[in-house]
Amino acid sequence: MTHAEKLAAIRGLMKQQDIDAYIIPSSDPHISEYLPDHYKCIAWASGFTGSAGTLAITQSFAGLWTDSRYFVQAREQLAGTGYELVKLTVQTAPEYANWLAENLPSEAVVAFDDRLVSESLAKAIRNPLLSAGMDVWEGIDFLTSIWFDRPALPKRPVYFLEETLTGEATESKLNRLRAEMVKSRAMAHLISSLDDVAWLLNMRGSDVLCNPVALAFVLVTADRAVLFIDREKLSSQDRTSLEASGVQVSDYGRVEDTLNQLPATSFLLDSRRTCSRLYKLMAGKEIVEKTNPTTHFKAVKNEVEIAHTRNTMLKDGVALTKFFKWLTETVGKETISEVSLAERLRQFRAEQDGFVGESFDTIAGYRAHGALPHYKATTASNDTLQPNGLLLVDSGGQYRTGTTDITRVVSLGNATDAERIDYTLVLRGMIEGCAAVFPKGTRGYQIDAITRKPLWDELRNYGHGTGHGVGFFLNVHEGPHTFNAAAVDVPIEPGMITSIEPGLYREGKYGIRIENLVLSMLHTDTLFGQFIAFETLTLCYIDTLLIDKSLLDSKHIDWLNAYHATVYVKLAPYLDEGEKHWLAKKTAAV
């Protein structure tokens, strides 16, 4: 079927059941950001492949609500499908629910699949619709009956990490979790989010592209822990090891029945990370509404994880140095496209010990494509690089010893004054963020503002957040902390790894984003309390050919020169003579 035919089929099912609007979210029963193919419902229904968006369908209108990262991509991918782009004014807000409440008649019926919506989101959808006198049907799955070639759920085996990598055994993590449950007066706790499950059990998988996780739930009580997973993914040795750690194994599909059979008790649930269907099974029980304790635990890396991460940054920095040397010496002499560029970068990373895969699809945006923050080259859009213009490369690697994420912009030739000004302002913002020293208790939105100020001073801005948490050989986007404008009430703690990635985008021309990962660490004690600073973890040169020095203060130049000196000293022992000479020039003091 074409996407227009799929839309017609959905509308046909809506008409049969007297449903006036149907909502399709971008999610799965684990409320994941990145999805297994089985749950890529929006891509199947509409052709839109971005990682954030929601479809809302009526008999007269079908819209994709998404944020500014995807406006250009959505316009292109939705052409001819019957869907229209609706621009979100607030990222992730369910503005489609308000639109339906305002545009549908009273007593209309709105439906969605409650397996694919968190309880927190389901509540935000219900409230405006119920207030408008509408009915909300929450268990409606229209796609299964018409998605004839739907991919099966993945069955690839999982594997477990040694304590020498993770720094903490599963038994210890379970004990910490149970202690938090006691503090919260909760007798049971369901974990649905895949990265939390993976962290708790020191388990990794490959069910989701780029994220080393497996589809699973974990139920924890005072005296037992149960892993719900496809048993075929576990070897007999895995099951024995889990049992030795105090973890029973049950079938993935048994989670609903098990929850139904639990006695009335107090239950700790994270409504933002638990699908509405499972959450509603707890009706009649006392609900302790709280962020999964494991989410906070895994955000603060232990010393073993930190040491491994520093080593991983060395490996990634070596791969990136080889890549950028190859790029700058080859462009204009051989044919390089955005697609082949991304593949070549993967090859350089794959040469490093412990490399498992990419941490997300590489964003290689040449010239105008760089202005699309989440661009992914396709055969239709694949540009060929020339020895002029700006190239933005946002990429990352998954290693058994850590996760990386880095963005660099390089000039391939003939940079303009406008490009230099924009680039330098972004660099200034990145340095301000990385060099920030702040009191303990500071929140991410405050770091966001510090980083944006150099751009604000020149009446410039960017539509995405400044930074996100990064997992340890886990998801490249990790909560609970984030550096963006939202008033997320999570303090920045020592041991957190976060990106700092300001940008500036001129649609149809170029995009600029410069990104490093930083580690929060105690800086000093003062009469005014403890202060925290960042250790920059990423090791890769920053293109100085694009800098307008008149826009930098001496403190910015000093920071950049010190950073480049560190990059050279740490990477040089792993490079050959030609690579050392090249890197020495790229990291020369300005």
From TrEMBL:
Pfam families: Creatinase_N, Creatinase_N_2, Peptidase_M24, Peptidase_M24_C. Residues 7-128 form the Creatinase N-terminal domain. Residues 310-519 form the Peptidase M24 domain. Gene3D superfamilies: Creatinase/methionine aminopeptidase superfamily, Creatinase/prolidase N-terminal domain. Residues 530-589 form the Peptidase M24 C-terminal domain. GO terms for cellular component: cytoplasm. Keywords: Aminopeptidase, Hydrolase, Metal-binding, Protease. InterPro entries: Creatin/AminoP/Spt16_N (IPR029149), Creatinase/aminopeptidase-like (IPR036005), Creatinase_N (IPR000587), Pept_M24 (IPR000994), Pept_M24B (IPR033740), Peptidase_M24_C (IPR032416), X-Pro_aminopeptidase_P (IPR050422). SUPFAM superfamilies: Creatinase/aminopeptidase (SSF55920), Creatinase/prolidase N-terminal domain (SSF53092). The keyword Metal-binding applies. The keyword Transport does not apply. GO terms for molecular function: metal ion binding; metalloaminopeptidase activity. Belongs to the peptidase M24B family. This is Xaa-Pro aminopeptidase. The lineage of its organism: Bacteria, Pseudomonadati, Bacteroidota, Sphingobacteriia, Sphingobacteriales.
